[in-house]
Amino acid sequence: MTDNGAAELLARTRGDIAAATTENRFVDMLEAGGLPRERLVWLAGEEYRIVGSDRRSFALLAARFPDPPSGELFLELAQGEGQALALLGEFAAALGQSEKNLRAYDPKPFAQAYPAYLAQRAAFGTAAEVALAMLANLEEWGAYCGRTARALRTQYGFSDGAVGFFDFFAEPPPGFEERALDVIASGLASGEDPIEVARAARLLHAYETAFWDTLAEGLP
């Protein structure tokens, strides 16, 4: 890899992910105002499990890779998931769901493939794998969250507070791309295989797609 190897790897991986991206029926139906309210409860219930799992995964990564630049990045991501969990409670409350309801919600297996894979990489993968996976998928995830927040306001009458969870993820944390690239560059400099690093990002994208597909499953 060249001195710009991390940026080059990111660009190639983003291209691979863009080529593999399909329509998001869940968000499309949400924007059209045709999504059953029950599916919004699904969304809250699935995210409750995902955010809790991701917070533990990032905390584990911060413990495994405490030195800069990785430690600070993963610790910040873990803290962000904690903020998101509080915001999710407001969305759930707007749906008439308590935290007890969220805990009792029975998650759909394929909707949970994404956090399961992230937890696997947190335990057995590398800092560069996770940094690239998060960075390469961030734009698509953020766009879906932005579209979801707008649709919930305009089509379903949710307040700004109720959609704060989606607003939170619609924009990346300041400086995130630069710091994530530093983590990727550090991994590549230590001899990590760029093919393996990129594979983790593509798999994470596939599992994230499965999340959205599961939420729309069975709808006309």
- Average pLDDT reading: 97
Number of E-type strands:
0
The main β sheet shows up as: none
The fraction of residues in strands falls at: under 5%
Using only C-alpha atoms, the radius of gyration works out to: 17 Å
Structural class: mainly alpha
Order of helices and strands: HHHHHHHHHH
What is the distance, rounded to the nearest whole angstrom, between the alpha carbons of the first and last residues?
47 Å
- Stretches where pLDDT falls below 50 for ≥5 residues? none
Brief descriptors of the model:
single chain; 220 residues; mainly alpha; 10 helices; 77% helix
Task: Write a short abstract of this structure.
Helices cover 77% and strands 0% of the residues.
Structural write-up:
The chain is mainly α. It is 77% helix and 0% strand. It has helices spanning 5-20, 25-32, 37-64, 70-94, 99-104, 113-124, 127-156, 164-170, 176-189, 194-216. Helix 3 (37-64) runs parallel beside helix 6 (113-124), helix 4 packs antiparallel against helix 8 (164-170) and helix 7 packs antiparallel against helix 9 (176-189). The protein is globular and about 50 Å long. It starts with a helix and ends with a helix.
SSE arrangement:
Blueprint: H1 5-20, H2 25-32, H3 37-64, H4 70-94, H5 99-104, H6 113-124, H7 127-156, H8 164-170, H9 176-189, H10 194-216
Helix pairs in contact: 1-7, 1-9, 1-10, 2-7, 3-4, 3-6, 4-8, 6-10, 7-8, 7-9, 7-10
